[in-house]
């Protein structure tokens, strides 16, 4: 691939998906795009670039973007955020939303669905405590291929053994040949939709809890800051943001602030000093101590 | 250092598991069937057991049932590691007192994830 093609792809990926492709990662282009070209019956990366450039085939661009994103995910990834969700976040919202009995959750980079389904399992374990409550989980991703997988809820034996307790496997999955499928009760708790984080959030609505994990790492500072600002806009003053283990708001955005002792969780910054209602909630205080 | 008893009739599997567990800082002991494993446990309870299902002399599920009857036999964390991968087998194992369940083929990542889940790491 010539430098012209590399520059074009680098610029296009950044503009259309936010992905920053450094020179060192250029080898990824070859290994991931050659299969794309083959699938579209094109003659190598050069022809793929020609097609993407002339703008008449948006599906080529989309295929390039989908091939270049990293979709890796697993159930209960990093464990801790899910403990926080179960032990601190939900008890708080079950009190704070007594009146409306509504909680809205958004997985902003849902990938193949492991994250939203992990949350759905935790919610389901609450049993009678959330009877009569309206809890929405929305999973979005830029990649429609990966969302198809999430919607199907079909996982390999390897995937269901990374992070998923076996009790949850037998409770929430059915075996289909060598694969495991999420049961329909759990699948129906999550809605999926294609959404690019670079687009306007106007159509999404409001969310109490946002999981935006392991996606901002692929973006530059400016893109991260813009996305964080738009997330803040679609949250109530007591909204909570969960980021991935290698991500932070510090030095990027002052619209969120870290919560002491709850690593990876951020609350909407407030002008008032002193601990927030969330931090003062007994379940949260107990968990953090 | 925690100890893990590896119970499998395949020498190759024991070797692979031993290597993975040593990297996770476990001291390992090996047994080629359930009876040998049970005798070892009577002598000294390990912290963890990585347990195959189908073995000659005494299979994994009988070993587990016997182990849980022994004084101190509720101590070890037992993780099945077997080619049996249907819901019935998994449920039978859990009812007999297994703590986790790995379906072969396995690798270091799966062992690490499962051991972390049951608090061994
Ligand atoms: C590594 S996965 C993270 C999955 C999950 N959140 C987790 O932590 O396990 C990153 C996902 O972000 C998606 N993604 C990348 N750029 C995006 C964008 N601009 N808008 C929406 N999703 C994007 C990718 O398609 C991929 O599925």
Largest interface: A-B, 12 and 17 residues
- Oligomeric form: heterodimer
- Class by helix and strand content of chain A? alpha/beta
Number of strands of chain A: 10
Note the total helix count of chain B: 5
Strand content of chain B: 15-25%
Written description of the protein model:
The complex is a heterodimer of chains A (289) and B (121). Chain A has 289 residues and is α/β, with parallel strands linked by helices. Chain A has helices spanning 3-17, 26-39, 44-54, 58-68, 80-96, 114-125, 144-152, 166-172, 184-187, 221-233, 277-280, 282-288; strands at 102-107, 134-141, 154-156, 173-176, 179-182, 190-194, 209-212, 240-243, 256-259, 262-268. Chain A has 2 domains: 3-69, Chemotaxis Receptor Methyltransferase Cher, domain 1; 80-288, Vaccinia Virus protein VP39 (Rossmann fold, 3-Layer(aba) Sandwich). Chain A has a 7-stranded mixed beta sheet with strand order 6-2-1-7-8-10-9. Chain A has a 3-stranded antiparallel beta sheet with strand order 3-5-4. The model of chain A has no long low-confidence stretch (mean pLDDT 95). Chain B has helices at residues 11-23, 34-43, 60-69, 87-95, 108-117; strands spanning 2-7, 26-31, 48-51, 77-82, 100-103. The longest helix of chain B has 13 residues, at 11-23. In chain B, strand 4 (77-82), helix 4 (87-95) and strand 5 form a beta-alpha-beta unit. The model of chain B has no long low-confidence stretch (mean pLDDT 97). Chain B has one domain: 3-Layer(aba) Sandwich (Rossmann fold). With 121 residues, chain B is of the alpha/beta class. Chain B is globular, with a radius of gyration of 13 Å. At the A-B interface, helix 8 of A face helix 4, strand 5 and helix 5 of B. Bound molecules: S-adenosylmethionine (SAM). Residues 17-18, 69-73, 77, 109, 111, 115, 141-143, 146, 196-198, 213-215, 244 of chain A line the site of S-adenosylmethionine. S-adenosylmethionine binds next to loops of chain A.
